[in-house]
Design brief:
7 strands, alpha/beta, globular, 17% strand, 191 residues, 8 helices
């Protein structure tokens, strides 16, 4: 996992509401247990036609989306079944943060555990972001803020432990392993 303190990026906007995990990465691509290459399957049924050719009108296939690390989605992204493949596909594509007014709980938790930052913002900020695709935003994870190019800065909530892990580039197992010496010392004292 890559540490994240500040993320400055243009946004790519996908305004659809209720984007479920099967739309993010269709079930037929869930046979892999590795993250590499899942980005090409991100939104596969929306990005490609029945012959596997990219649809030029889909936002992620457009040149303006290249290099964008912040996805602004409609309300309730990540609903549906639990699958780690959804944040894996987003990360492999190059997305580091997802912004919306509502992010489904299971998807939010899977995202945090895998290094994808879910950012929940108020309606006014969300509407501005939807109306201004390609806007350059700054997400400051240390301050838990998202700054718009207008000068507006809004706070967003995040679990303290998940924030610690993202700031330090460790997952839950990496965090536990970093405490190995303290755990061993405790066990020896108790023996």
């Amino acid at each position: 996992m890559t540490a994240m303190k500040t993320l400055r990026s243009r946004t790519v906007v996908l305004p659809s509401t209720n984007i479920d995990t099967d739309q993010i990465v269709p079930a037929r691509f869930l046979t892999t247990t590795t993250r590499e290459g899942l980005g090409r399957n991100l939104f596969a049924d929306w990005r490609y036609d029945e012959n596997g050719r990219p649809r030029p009108d889909f936002v992620l296939n457009q040149p303006a989306a290249q290099g964008c690390q912040v996805l602004v989605a409609g309300r309730n992204i990540g609903c549906g079944s639990s699958r780690e493949h959804a944040p894996w596909a987003l990360l492999d594509f190059g997305i580091r943060a997802v912004v919306s007014t509502e992010i489904a709980d299971i998807f939010r938790n899977n995202s945090l555990k895998n290094g994808l930052l879910p950012v929940v913002v108020d309606t006014a900020t969300h509407e501005w972001l939807l109306a201004n695709p390609g806007a350059e935003v700054t997400i400051d994870l240390e301050a838990c803020t998202l700054a718009l190019p207008t000068g507006t800065t809004v706070k967003f909530p995040i679990d303290a432990f998940a924030r610690y892990c993202l700031l330090n580039g460790v997952d839950e197992l990496g965090y536990l392993l970093s405490k190995d010496a303290a755990i061993s010392a405790y066990e020896q004292r108790r023996a």
